[in-house]
Every structure is written in structure tokens, then in C-alpha cells.
Amino acid sequence: MNSSGELLPEQFIGESVTVTDSAFDASVMASGAPGVPSVFSWRGTSYRVRAVLHTGKTNRPCRHGSGERYIDKHVYCVETETGEVMTLYCRRTSGRKAGWTLYSLRKKARPMIQSDKKTAAASSGPLRVAVLVSGGGTNLQAIIDEQRRMNRLAAGAFAEGSVCANGVFAEGGADTDDVAACPYEVCAVFSDRKDAYALERARQAGIPAEIVSPYAVLGADKAKSATRDEKRFAVSDRVLALSRAYEADILVLAGFLTVLGGAVIDAYGGRIINLHPALLPKFGGEGMWGRHVHEAVLASGEAESGCTVHLVDGGCDTGKILLQRRVPVLPGDTPETLYARIAPCEHEALVAGIKMLAELR
């Protein structure tokens, strides 16, 4: 499909592009379709179309109730000369200014960056997020779902699935041209456990996933004899290398059980956030994760609990607190019922924390 190398997962854009004059396919235009532009620019960069991969269209019912249907958009999935795969559409609805929109983009996989101090402010487009996980990945799913929701709303709320699977967009969606696209995109998922279900969630979403367990990083023989700190720093160094390779702007620890340390903290200082299932500074530190936290909260007789999103500073749950969400502890609560009450707050808080860093770029 793409002759320029591996492609990254699809990114939904929903932004206008500027078409070069006289760059249309005249033979296609003669049939009544607008014809895909051969040259256009987006965000200050000019793109030239190498090939048209798919074409399609959407239609809408007559607004006067006649039962007839009219073409609403002409859709083209194209490959550019620089290797990107882009989906463009031209809206033909009456009463709207004609124009072209970039619906989605698949970029070429980028080479490893060289600078340890690459900042999010230097990047353009959505904040690139690497999510670190150890378990089921429900918080990862919340991050992915919000990214999809915002991008589909911004692009006109098209239906779920590959927009070019059969050459036709699904119908539906409100007129949402003024809705902003998601300020972040998940560029990679790293897990320190090879059997974490979060890896399957990443696969289903088309997001690259890497295993960073001590056994994967050091090999079985070295991992068996390595000390706890040796394993910790080996995992941390691998996370740093992968984060550079995927050009992640920030790292999000969504239930990641390895305490990061060493060079990754320096390289991503102020750009690593962690979700903790309690109201720090209470119930944090070594051994305070998952069920253990909720058991400790209930044993203490606390009237409330919640979750915390904080910056990572190399310690264990010691970084600057960015935001917290609170829930009551009810009579008769168990670790399971308390977790069930906190979980939706975790999902919302972690997404809010990512958006907070995106706004600070």
C-alpha cells in the first residue's frame, strides 16, 4: 500500500486544506465529481498526491421530505509523494461554502530523535502521548475513547471504522465544524507485563505496543539474577529509548507498577504524569497500588477517598499534584465497591491531566 515505509495509526484531523489552483483532475470533474486536488497545503506544508487509493461519497436525504437522496461529500483517500496516507473530502451541501477538508492522516513512522530535551512546545499538532500500563488498561481505554470522541465530533461525527474500508463514509453526525479536535493522540503503549490485557486494547485500536518487562529488556538469565534496582533502571532506560523512537511528548503512567528512575526522569522532567487511586499524600508510596490502597483507606476509617494525577519526580507518588477527584466512603464498602466508585473518576481525571499538559505547551 505505502511505498515509503511503515505507517503510524490513523489520526483524525477535521481541518481545512488549501488547494492549489488548476490542480484538479479534469476528466473526473467532467463526470460531475470535484476531482481530487493534485497539490494542496495543510498547516503550512505543501503535499503532492502520488496516488488515489480509494474514492467514495456520502449522501443525505432531501430536506423537503421528498424521499430522494443527494450527494453530500466526495471522499478521496490518497497517498502523498512524501508517504503519508490522507483522507480528504469536499462538501457539496447547498448553502455551504465549497472547500476541502483533511479528515484523517496516517503519518510515516518517524526516526528516533536525538535530543533528550525535546519539548512538547516544539511539536506541532496533537500532543503525542505514550501510555504506560501493567494491567487491564481501563484507563488506557478511556484515553483512547476520548481521543476518538473528540476527533469524530470535530470531523462531523462519522461512523466508527476505517473511512476507506469500502470507499463510502457512513451517514450521520451534526454540523460540528467549530468543534476542536482532540489536543492529544496516543502514539504508543508500553507494558511491563507481557500478559496485560491493555496490550490487546492497544492492538484493537491500531496503536503500537511494546513490552518493557525486565525479562524482555534484560533477557531471562540476566533478569533472574538482577537486583530490584537493576530491573527498575533497565526498564526505565528502555522506556526512554522507546519514547524517543515514537517521539512521545509526554508519558502517562496509567496503572504502571514499575517506579521510573534515572535518565528518563531528566529527559521528560515535568512531562510524566501518574494516576494514583487515592488522595495523595495519604496512602501513597511503596506497596500502595490497586486493591492494597483501597484496603488501607477502609482500614483507616477515612470518610472519603478518590484519585490523584501528579507529576513524576523519581520518587514513589511524591511529585507535584495536578488535580484530584473525591468520592465518599460509604458504610459497608469493600475494596471492590470503593474501587467501582472511584474508577469513573480515574478515567475523567487522567484525561483531564493530559489535556492540562496539552494546554500548557
UniProtKB/TrEMBL annotation:
<feature type="binding site">
    <location>
        <position position="274"/>
    </location>
    <ligand>
        <name>(6R)-10-formyltetrahydrofolate</name>
    </ligand>
</feature>
<comment type="function">
    <text>Catalyzes the transfer of a formyl group from 10-formyltetrahydrofolate to 5-phospho-ribosyl-glycinamide (GAR), producing 5-phospho-ribosyl-N-formylglycinamide (FGAR) and tetrahydrofolate.</text>
</comment>
<dbReference type="Pfam" id="PF00551">
    <property type="entry name" value="Formyl_trans_N"/>
</dbReference>
<feature type="binding site">
    <location>
        <position position="228"/>
    </location>
    <ligand>
        <name>(6R)-10-formyltetrahydrofolate</name>
    </ligand>
</feature>
<dbReference type="Pfam" id="PF20114">
    <property type="entry name" value="DUF6504"/>
</dbReference>
<keyword id="KW-0808">Transferase</keyword>
<feature type="binding site">
    <location>
        <begin position="137"/>
        <end position="139"/>
    </location>
    <ligand>
        <name>N(1)-(5-phospho-beta-D-ribosyl)glycinamide</name>
    </ligand>
</feature>
<dbReference type="InterPro" id="IPR036477">
    <property type="entry name" value="Formyl_transf_N_sf"/>
</dbReference>
<protein>
    <recommendedName>
        <fullName>Phosphoribosylglycinamide formyltransferase</fullName>
        <ecNumber>2.1.2.2</ecNumber>
    </recommendedName>
</protein>
<dbReference type="GO" id="GO:0006189">
    <property type="term" value="P:'de novo' IMP biosynthetic process"/>
</dbReference>
<dbReference type="InterPro" id="IPR004607">
    <property type="entry name" value="GART"/>
</dbReference>
<feature type="site" description="Raises pKa of active site His">
    <location>
        <position position="317"/>
    </location>
</feature>
<feature type="domain" description="Formyl transferase N-terminal">
    <location>
        <begin position="185"/>
        <end position="352"/>
    </location>
</feature>
<keyword id="KW-0658">Purine biosynthesis</keyword>
<feature type="active site" description="Proton donor">
    <location>
        <position position="276"/>
    </location>
</feature>
<comment type="similarity">
    <text>Belongs to the GART family.</text>
</comment>
<dbReference type="GO" id="GO:0004644">
    <property type="term" value="F:phosphoribosylglycinamide formyltransferase activity"/>
</dbReference>
<feature type="domain" description="DUF6504">
    <location>
        <begin position="10"/>
        <end position="106"/>
    </location>
</feature>
<dbReference type="InterPro" id="IPR002376">
    <property type="entry name" value="Formyl_transf_N"/>
</dbReference>
<comment type="pathway">
    <text>Purine metabolism; IMP biosynthesis via de novo pathway; N(2)-formyl-N(1)-(5-phospho-D-ribosyl)glycinamide from N(1)-(5-phospho-D-ribosyl)glycinamide (10-formyl THF route): step 1/1.</text>
</comment>
<dbReference type="InterPro" id="IPR045443">
    <property type="entry name" value="DUF6504"/>
</dbReference>
<dbReference type="GO" id="GO:0005829">
    <property type="term" value="C:cytosol"/>
</dbReference>
